[in-house]
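User: Please predict the structure of the protein below. I'd like the answer in structure-token form so I can feed it into my own downstream comparison script.

Assistant: Understood. Taking the following sequence of 402 residues as input:
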Amino acid sequence: MSWIFFLLFIIFVDYYSYQSIKNISKNRIVKYSYFIVSFLIVFYFFYKYKIHAEGTYKALALGLLISFYSPKLILIILNFSEDFFRLIIASSNKIFKFNKSFELPSRRKFISKLGLGLASLPFFSLNFGMIWGKNNIKVLKYTLFFDDLPSSFDGFQLTQISDIHAGNITSIDNLEHTVKLINSQNSNVIFFTGDLVNNEAKELIPWINTLSKLKSKDGIYSILGNHDYGDYRSWPSVKEKTDNFNTIKQYQEDMGFNLLINDSVYIKRGNQKIAIVGVENWGNGFRKYGDLSKASEKIKSEDFKILLSHDPTHWQKKVVDGIDNYQLTLSGHTHGGQFGIEIPGYIKWSPVSLRYKYWAGIYKEKNRYLNVNRGLGTTAVPGRLGVWPEITVITLKSTNNA
């Protein structure tokens, strides 16, 4: 039944927004092209989400639908306003000029042109983001200073990546380029902070060989994100969901990732060491799998600690005010909203900032750092605009050598 209402809504949107085009051009080719393209996009979306629900490219289908229909909503708003204006004019003529008939004036062409001009902005922006923006990877480099960093780790460099969302990858060449760019940073260690897939382990299969090429001197450590548990789709049985989850974990091992599930390890330099702590996903509005106490059982409170926690809400709610000092926390999850405005030193805003206090970049409170990586992949709309995919490179420095 919901699909019937969806299709009725689409028909209404197409017909009503078409009035702007019809008011400017009577060309049949324009008319037929408008409805043919609309039909193909809706059919593709319907096919991916209803007929062939297990297929790939669902994000592309949703992205195309949004990029073609959000502009039409702008046309509907203007057409509704114009029709209300026409109704007022016709009513006034009938009442005050004593017209014999009630006649609506024609739609004004400049309003239709204005609507099409405004609608073109989200149309071209969204498609630009899906074609080019999602591959416009930025390498962001930071140097952070700590009073208690072991001297052997002064200058230690880490690379953080996050939110690959393998089910939305469409190009092996782009992924190969990404892996080479990550490896070229020559960091001591690579951290992956969750959301390897959208839901299913099979999303990874085409990309395992490429992701296996990630290399660093001290290894690759990873954690789970909210999408990695398979919670966002229905499963025929609990066993199938469990098998899927276990396969995701196995694939990480196959790729050379050291998956930390509420666990910790040490990286050593001589007789000095730093602790790497990885928790499962913990965030408001999500199942709270993460257990920081359990993850820290093997380490000491005085250790220098790097915490991997997918959702930055965890840092806000459980880490920054905690008794034990986790000097640096690495998160992802937000994607930086994928769409926003970032001009360093001037403005930094995305709609996702309305939900997350910490949503992109470096934050510091109570001498504890958080980095929220903007992610490499996409979810929902397969595009980015203004908030680009990110590889983070952080160098740890001792304040004693500053």
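That's the full token string. The chain has two domains: 2-131, 137-401.
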